[in-house]
């Protein structure tokens, strides 16, 4: 019985009740509504472009779109629970945070590593398709993000405090590793692409698209994922601030990242608007 009481107290200290905070419910509702209404059309457009393309489907970007789509539906379910079961909504919100915090950077990191091999080691690039690199990476995203989100949400109730600490910090360390790998790979690719080739200093259209894609990935990482890491660690010693202020802010940043990256991808490939795509094809 003592262990149960200890776990419950630990759980309550890590998941403070924020219902009394002024404007807390309104802010969470705004995050859920904006995430769903803005993100769904963008991701639907990305999926449509990827699946109807004449080229081989981009498995990793399709997987990223599906992942974000699931994230948006979790936000919609959270909006419902927020008003129907306000005392239980925090567990789902925690699940959403860990799910997006783990799977989002992991998806981008795998996409970045695929580009890295294509640019730095082009002769080895066909091996990625031979050994099903994209499919394995897509499966890894789901096999890590979903169980880790469940474990992080349920850990304080069912397991010991020591293991709880490990589970609680694992998403942070995974995000740090993914961000470092993306930054390092992006710097190397940028240097390789900006080197003058046989045609002189003028970059080819393919290289220009690759440079824009690298800048977009780096910008999303530095503007959204890195601040999530910093905010969580800076306020880790204050459970009330972490649970009631920082966690909603982090979910907002992760939701913004899930919208901005598909927008960058579509604009880079000139497929953000269907009318402009038709004009581009007609001008050829």
From TrEMBL:
Keyword vocabulary terms for this entry: G-protein coupled receptor, Glycoprotein, Membrane, Receptor, Transducer, Transmembrane, Transmembrane helix
Keyword Glycoprotein annotated: yes
Major localization class: membrane
One annotated Gene Ontology cellular component of this protein: plasma membrane
An annotated Gene Ontology molecular function: G protein-coupled receptor activity
InterPro entries listed in its UniProt record: GPCR_Rhodpsn_7TM
Protein's membrane topology: Multi-pass membrane protein
PROSITE patterns: G_PROTEIN_RECEP_F1_2
Compartments where located: Membrane
Coiled-coil ranges from the UniProt annotation: none
Residue stretches making up the G-protein coupled receptors family 1 profile domain: 92-265
Ranges annotated as spanning the membrane: 27-48, 60-86, 133-150, 170-187
Domain of life: Eukaryota
GO biological process: phospholipase C-activating G protein-coupled receptor signaling pathway; positive regulation of Rho protein signal transduction
PANTHER family recorded: G-PROTEIN COUPLED RECEPTOR, HYDROXYCARBOXYLIC ACID RECEPTOR 2-LIKE
Official protein name in the record: G-protein coupled receptors family 1 profile domain-containing protein
């Amino acid at each position: 019985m003592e262990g149960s009481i200890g776990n419950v107290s630990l759980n309550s200290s890590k998941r403070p009740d924020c219902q009394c905070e002024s404007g807390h419910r309104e802010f969470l509702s705004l995050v859920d509504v904006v995430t769903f209404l803005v993100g769904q059309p963008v991701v639907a457009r990305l999926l449509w472009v990827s699946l109807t393309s004449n080229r081989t489907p981009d498995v990793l970007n399709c997987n990223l779109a599906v992942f974000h789509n699931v994230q948006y539906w979790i936000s919609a379910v959270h909006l419902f629970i927020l008003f129907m079961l306000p005392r239980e909504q925090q567990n789902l919100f925690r699940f959403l945070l860990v799910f997006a915090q783990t799977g989002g950077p992991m998806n981008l990191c795998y996409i970045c590593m695929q580009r890295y091999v294509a640019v730095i080691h082009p002769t080895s690039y066909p091996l990625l398709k031979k050994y099903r690199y994209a499919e394995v990476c897509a499966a890894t995203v789901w096999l890590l993000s979903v169980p880790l989100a469940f474990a992080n949400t349920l850990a304080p109730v069912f397991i010991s405090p020591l293991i709880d600490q490990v589970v609680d910090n694992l998403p942070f360390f995974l995000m740090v590793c993914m961000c470092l790998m993306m930054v390092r790979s992006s710097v190397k690719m940028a240097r390789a692409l900006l080197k003058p080739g046989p045609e002189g200093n003028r970059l080819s259209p393919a290289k220009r698209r690759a440079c824009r894609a690298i800048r977009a990935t780096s910008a999303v990482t530095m503007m959204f994922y890195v601040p999530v890491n910093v905010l969580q660690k800076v306020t880790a010693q204050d459970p009330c601030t972490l649970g009631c202020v920082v966690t909603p802010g982090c979910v907002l940043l992760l939701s913004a990242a899930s919208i901005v990256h598909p927008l960058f991808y579509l604009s880079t490939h000139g497929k953000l608007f269907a009318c402009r795509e038709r004009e581009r094809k007609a001008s050829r």
